[in-house]
């Protein structure tokens, strides 16, 4: 009967066989012999996968030698096929009675009653074959023996893959990652990029599987487990921004598994059976991956995924490798791959080398998407199975416009994209050349083109895009990516840096627009039934004035001696605006009392994104210094159509008569009172929509920086007076949308849209 020394002896002999100058087949033959002797079995056989889903007998001790390379079973056929298909051991004291038993006369296995078969799994989870022992007696193999055979199978797998035991052309060793692969996800951030794959959490290759000193390996493993637990606990307790939202959930799962006795015991047993600490992790990990591959329940798969990630972390701890690639040498064009990622983790990378981000999970509203947008890199999320397909260093094309990920693309695909990118670059160069060209229509109407921002990382775009200023600075983003409520000093520093970066250009700070999908990692979730219409933005800050005052204080301090423009989000009635404005006055008084330098000028505006406010235009225009229309929210409330619901995505059109007429009413009223009005929703950045807005009388638009070039190009060819007359003729239309008519106008008048 095999004892724990059994597998160690087998491993030792296997190592010796490997250095003998004999053929691969002779090595295999010797190995089955050694295994049989040490396992006190009459038979030991190795079956390996062949292309086409077959399992072939490659070596045997005890069965008829003539059956070698002759006996074949389909995946799932017989006990061997069952072990391979399900990637789990079968321990049978009466094998012929098992429902899967399939009799093969040529093997001469009639006398053998008991059988223990274990899968041969390579790193990555692919089943390469089956290692089986048989005995004549009705024997039940003990747990230690199962463990021993599994350990031997782990080492065998690596030897097979290395080509030392078989000709690799003869066996199916699973995905070779040398063929093109195309994945589809969801685009969270548009754009196209090409580059080399970098894994955010790099995989480590285990070089040495067989231990020289079992005690030393056990100590190394124990130490690494303690290390791992400590690092996870530390990450969770720091409340770091990098682990907001989904990442936090994953970490919680890691913590649970890292303290799970079942997992750590399996690792220890694997070391005891003669593997190095790394080899033990790999053995247990292969098992997890094999289970993952056959798991159909998505929740269970997710947990197995967590366990697999945790094993990777443990490997990195053992090998003294960094947890992420952020501070490794990156290729000049890096396409980053991760399962999920926190915003701060992304900001940790050298942005001059970062070209795209691909996530296996994620959501468009996750904070990392916000950062990707600020960094102006395409982000494709929810690309199922992408991490199984990618190898670091692979060529990748990330098409954020179509949500496609092309890995190791064929030459023609690469060429097609090169062409696409060259065209884009040409267009970008044309936009860049127009950077300093004033945005004036053909008939001499000046249009202010501003950009939207939310992070310090956005500031360089001001110059690059030729924006006149920042029409919307979403201050909540900083709160969302912080791990705790930012302190007053931090806010003052940030707002000062923004004003410095803007170098005298206008910056309109919007006070906190929290709630809805904008949640703080450190705040208690509200669990509202209708969060978009819930306790959010100005409603929240008027109920908690201390927070708003604190933010206003920071803005006023940062603006000492310069102009400060601030506005409130989601104002639904003038009374709310007045109440909020009063807080600004109180803060200004406070500043005067403390003798600090006040801003040169403070302008207080209101967002108009709740339709009700448009019915109080005279009062609003009397109370506010400026108005900014948030068309994203305005559209959702005007049509009662959730802006984040993909089912409603194309249902109602921004260019519909109700929306356009509504906007015109606001623009006309503001112009009549001489109050500046800007539109800062997404529609301002789309050339056709922007054209329509100019036709309605808007002369100030704020958009994502990348849109400034295309919008400017459009308006330089536009006769706004002619468009206004054209649109006046459409005012009474009851069509679903005026999009086609406006497009036709642009085509006829050669306005590039
Ligand atoms: C809007 O609603 O149009 C807007 C600009 O604000 P946000 O997208 O941040 O809600
Ligand atoms: Mg809004």
What would a concise description of this structure say?
The chain is built from 27 helices and 22 strands. By secondary structure, it is α/β, with parallel strands linked by helices. It has four domains: 6-170, GAF domain (Beta-Lactamase), CATH 3.30.450.40; 181-202 and 331-423, Phosphohistidine domain (Glucose Oxidase, domain 1), CATH 3.50.30; 214-319, Enzyme I, Chain A, domain 2; 445-748, Phosphoenolpyruvate-binding domains (TIM Barrel), CATH 3.20.20.60.
Please, what is the CATH homologous superfamily of the largest domain? Phosphoenolpyruvate-binding domains
The Rg value, from CA coordinates, equals 33 Å
How would the global form be characterised? elongated
What's the CATH C level of the largest domain? Answer: Alpha Beta
Distance between the termini: 80 Å
Summarize the main sheet: 8 strands, mixed
CATH architecture field of the largest domain: Alpha-Beta Barrel
Query: Which sequence of strands runs across the widest sheet?
Result: 7-14-13-9-10-11-12-8
Mean pLDDT, nearest integer?
Answer: 91
Class from helix and strand fractions:
alpha/beta
Number of H/I helices = 27
- Give the uncertain stretches in residue-range form: none
Work out the strand percent. Answer: 15-25%
Helix content: 40-55%
Instruction: Count the beta strands.
Output: 22
Q: Indicate the CATH topology of the largest domain.
A: TIM Barrel
Count up the domains.
Answer: 4
Bound molecules: phosphoenolpyruvate, magnesium ion
């Amino acid at each position: 009967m095999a004892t724990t020394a059994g597998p160690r002896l087998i491993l030792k002999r296997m190592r010796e066989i490997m250095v003998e100058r004999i053929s691969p087949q002779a090595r295999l033959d010797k190995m089955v012999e050694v295994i049989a002797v040490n396992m006190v079995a009459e038979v030991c056989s190795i079956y390996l996968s062949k292309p086409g889903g077959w399992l072939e007998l490659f070596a045997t001790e005890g069965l008829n030698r003539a059956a070698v390379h002759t006996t074949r079973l389909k995946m799932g056929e017989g006990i061997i096929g069952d072990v391979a298909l399900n990637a789990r051991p079968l321990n049978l004291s009466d094998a012929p009675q098992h429902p899967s038993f399939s009799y093969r006369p040529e093997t001469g296995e009639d006398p053998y009653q008991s059988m223990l078969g274990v899968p041969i799994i390579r790193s990555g989870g692919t089943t390469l074959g089956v290692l089986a022992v048989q005995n004549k007696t009705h024997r039940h193999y003990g747990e230690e023996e199962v463990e021993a055979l599994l350990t031997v199978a782990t080492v065998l797998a690596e030897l097979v893959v290395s080509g030392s035991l078989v000709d690799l052309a003869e066996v199916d060793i699973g995905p070779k990652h040398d063929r093109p692969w195309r994945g589809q996800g969801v685009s969270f951030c548009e754009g196209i990029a090409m580059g080399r794959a970098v894994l955010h959490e790099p995989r480590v290759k285990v070089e040495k599987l067989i231990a020289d000193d079992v005690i030393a390996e056990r100590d190394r493993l124990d130490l690494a487990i303690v290390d791992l637990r400590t690092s996870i606990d530390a990450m969770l307790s720091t409340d770091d921004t990098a682990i907001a939202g989904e990442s936090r959930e994953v970490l919680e799962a890691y913590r649970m598994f890292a303290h799970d006795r079942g997992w750590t015991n399996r690792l220890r047993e694997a070391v005891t059976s003669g593997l190095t600490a790394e080899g033990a992790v790999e053995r247990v990990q292969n098992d997890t991956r094999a289970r993952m591959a056959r798991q159909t329940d998505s929740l269970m798969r997710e947990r197995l995924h967590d366990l697999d990630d945790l094993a990777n972390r443990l490997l990195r701890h053992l090998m003294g490798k960094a947890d992420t690639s952020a501070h490794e040498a990156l290729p000049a064009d890096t396409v980053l791959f991760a399962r999920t990622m926190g915003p701060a983790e992304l900001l940790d990378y050298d942005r001059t080398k970062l070209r795209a981000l691909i996530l296996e999970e994620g959501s468009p509203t996750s904070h990392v998407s916000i950062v990707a947008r600020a960094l102006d890199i395409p982000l494709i999320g929810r690309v199922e199975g992408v991490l199984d397909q990618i190898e670091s260093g692979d060529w990748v094309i990330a098409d954020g416009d179509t949500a496609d990920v092309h890995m190791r693309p064929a030459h023609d695909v690469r060429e097609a994209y090169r062409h696409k990118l060259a065209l884009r670059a040409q267009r970008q160069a044309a936009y860049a050349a127009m950077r300093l060209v004033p945005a004036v229509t053909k008939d001499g109407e000046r249009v202010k083109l501003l950009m939207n921002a939310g992070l310090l990382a956005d500031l360089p775009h001001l110059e690059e895009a030729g924006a006149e200023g920042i029409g919307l600075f979403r201050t909540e983003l900083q709160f969302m990516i912080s791990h705790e409520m930012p302190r007053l000093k931090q806010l003052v520093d940030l707002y000062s840096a923004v004003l410095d970066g803007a170098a005298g250009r206008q910056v309109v700070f919007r006070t906190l627009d929290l709630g809805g999908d904008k949640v703080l990692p450190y705040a208690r979730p509200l669990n509202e039934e209708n969060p978009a219409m819930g306790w959010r933005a100005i409603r929240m800050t008027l109920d908690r004035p201390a927070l708003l005052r604190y933010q206003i204080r920071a803005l006023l301090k940062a603006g000492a001696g310069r102009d400060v423009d601030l506005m409130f989000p989601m104002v639904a009635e003038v009374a709310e605006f007045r109440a909020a404005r009063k807080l600004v006055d109180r803060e200004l008084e406070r500043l005067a009392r403390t003798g600090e330098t006040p801003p040169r000028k403070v302008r207080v505006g209101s967002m108009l994104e709740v339709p009700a406010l448009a019915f109080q235009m005279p009062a609003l225009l009397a109370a506010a210094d400026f108005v900014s229309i948030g068309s994203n929210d305005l559209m959702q409330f005007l049509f009662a159509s959730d802006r984040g619901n993909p089912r409603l995505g194309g249902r109602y059109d921004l260019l519909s008569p109700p929306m356009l007429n509504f906007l015109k009413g606001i623009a006309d009223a503001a112009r009549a009172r001489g109050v500046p009005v800007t539109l800062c929703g997404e529609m301002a950045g789309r050339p056709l929509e922007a054209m329509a807005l100019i036709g309605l009388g808007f002369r100030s638009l704020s958009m994502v920086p990348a849109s400034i070039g295309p919008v400017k190009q459009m308006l330089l060819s536009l006769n706004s007076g002619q468009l206004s007359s054209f649109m006046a003729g459409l005012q009474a239309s009851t069509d679903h949308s005026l999009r086609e008519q406006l497009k036709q106008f642009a085509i006829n008048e050669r306005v590039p849209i």
